[in-house]
Structure formats: C-alpha cells, structure tokens
Amino acid sequence: MSSQQAKDHPHAADVDRHVRAYITVFVALMVLTLVTVWVSSLRLSLRLAVSVALGIATVKASLVAGVFMHLSSEKKLIVLGLALTVVFFLFCLLMPGVSDALNNRL
Amino acid sequence: MSASALIPYTVETRPDTGLNNVKIGIWLFLASEVMLFGGLFAAYILLRIGAAQWPLGASILSVPLAAANTLVLISSSVTMVMSWASLVRKDFGKFRLFMGLTVLLGLVFMGIKATEYMTKFHHGLFPRTSTFLAIYFTLTGLHAAHVLGGMVVNAYLWGPGSAMWKSEPLRFTNRVEAAGLFWHFVDLVWIFLFPVLYLL
C-alpha cells in the first residue's frame, strides 16, 4: 500500500469508533420509526401531523446521511454539490406555485 | 494495460479534488437520483394540493406492513455499513455475513412489498383507479426498482465480485463503500415515502 493510499483509507481503530455510532443510530432510527407510527394514531390537525411526520423523517434522514453515509465527515466538495442539488430541488418544488401566483396577479 | 490504469484514481485521492473518482462518481449519481425522486415528490405535492379530496393513506394502505418494511430497510442499512467496516478491519468472513444479511433483508423488503401490491390488485386497486394510487404505485414502484438494483450489486459483491478482495483489497473495499452509499440512499428515500404515502 502506498503512503497516499494509507492516508486516504480509514483504519480499524477509526472503524471501532464508527461502529459504536452505527449501533446508536440504528436504535435511534428504530425508536423514531415507532414514534412516527404512534404520532399518526393521534388525531392531530393535518398541518401539525405533516409538520411532525416530516420533522421526524428529516431527523432520521440526517442520521442516515450523516453517520451511515459519513456525510458529516465528508469533503466540502461533496457537501457543496449536494447543497446545489437541494437548491435545484426546491426550485422544482416551488416554481409551479410561484408561477400560479404570478398568473393570478396578472 | 489494466483497468485501473485506464481509469485512474479509483483508490488514490485525486490531487485536484481531494477525493477519489469512485467517491465523486457515486455522489454525482446520487445527486441525480435526488432530482429524480424530488421531481416525483413535487408532483405528489402538486397533485395533492390541487385535488378536491385526498384519501388518508392508512385508509387504503397497510401501515403495519409498511412500518415493518421500514424496520427491515433500516436494519439492512446497518448490516450494509457493517459489511464495509468488516473489510476495513480485514475480516472477510464478517463481511460475507453482513453482506449476505443485507441481501436477505432486501429480499424480505421486496417480499412484503409484493404482498402489499398483490393485495391491492386482488381488491381491484390499480394505478388507474385514482390519482392517489397512481402516485403511490409510481413512487413505490420506482423505489422497489432501486432496491432490486441495489440487491443485484450487493449479491455480486457478496458472490463472484468478492474475488477482488484477494487481488485488490482497497479497490474492493471502495466498491463496497460505493454500493453502500447507494443502499443508504434507497433507505433514505423510503424514510420519506413511508409517512408521506401511508400516514398523512
């Protein structure tokens, strides 16, 4: 293995630390899934139900992306690329609504 | 000339980006996947906002089956990342165990999904039946296709593809990491599909 390769790849000691985080996140994801199902059985208003369900889903997704996909320790280039993707996604999501609002005003 | 010479930096870091080509490639692919599912999520929201009436997912779909599938997919994400961790620890036996479990859990997910679909068809519920069912089958069908694709890659890495471990262990570990990133993304999409389609 070249010195460059050795520097670029994680070592067993780092992975031991990661494995503990994987188990913690696994338990958290299981609990949050059960909480999502329990909350849906409460008769909340649609607005509140959507906020709670998507809020929990966002926390779960952040745990998967941050820990399992190692995004929390990933290079800036990857994070910036994903941030740009999110901007395009939001544009895609909001554009029809904005277009409708503009048409109604004209 | 070997394949690694044709496509350089599959393992070593590129000096300009600070990343290897595999890492950049898989993240760019995942970014395109975000746009694919994102476009369909946007379509779902627009259809729902524009509809005079929209059914509660739980009144048509099975929440217990979908919740079980969520737990199965989360478990498979853990076994997937553990298979990568096993390779970093140079424990090939553990890799085979965890990767085999990942493929098995993928099969369980597809089995439950197939049961759900068959029940719907049996009750005369098809994509043409309503707008809700059309978007339900589109989103879950596309997701299931991704699960299937991931399973094929994982099964290859568990079976014939694992021969690379003996000749190029770092490159094989990199392949497993890239396959893992895709598998976690599939899990991530389901994390949003479950509440959006079944619970709201």
Structural overview:
The complex is a heterodimer of chains A (106) and B (200). Chain A has 106 residues and is mainly alpha-helical. Chain A folds into two domains: 3-74; 75-106. Chain A has helices at residues 3-8, 12-41, 46-68, 76-105. The mean pLDDT of chain A is 86. Chain B is mainly α. Chain B is 79% helix and 0% strand. Chain B is built from eight helices and no strands. In chain B, helix 6 (131-158) packs antiparallel against helix 8. Chains A and B meet through helix 1, helix 2, helix 3 and helix 4 of A and helix 2, helix 4 and helix 8 of B.
* pLDDT < 50 stretches of chain B: none
Oligomer status: heterodimer
Shape of chain A: flat
Q: What characterizes the major β-sheet of chain A?
A: none
Reconstruct the topology from this structure.
The complex is a heterodimer of chains A (106) and B (200).
Chain A: H1 3-8, H2 12-41, H3 46-68, H4 76-105
Helix pairs in contact in A: 2-3
Chain B: H1 3-6, H2 21-50, H3 57-60, H4 63-88, H5 92-122, H6 131-158, H7 164-167, H8 169-199
Helix pairs in contact in B: 2-6, 2-8, 4-5, 4-8, 5-6, 6-8
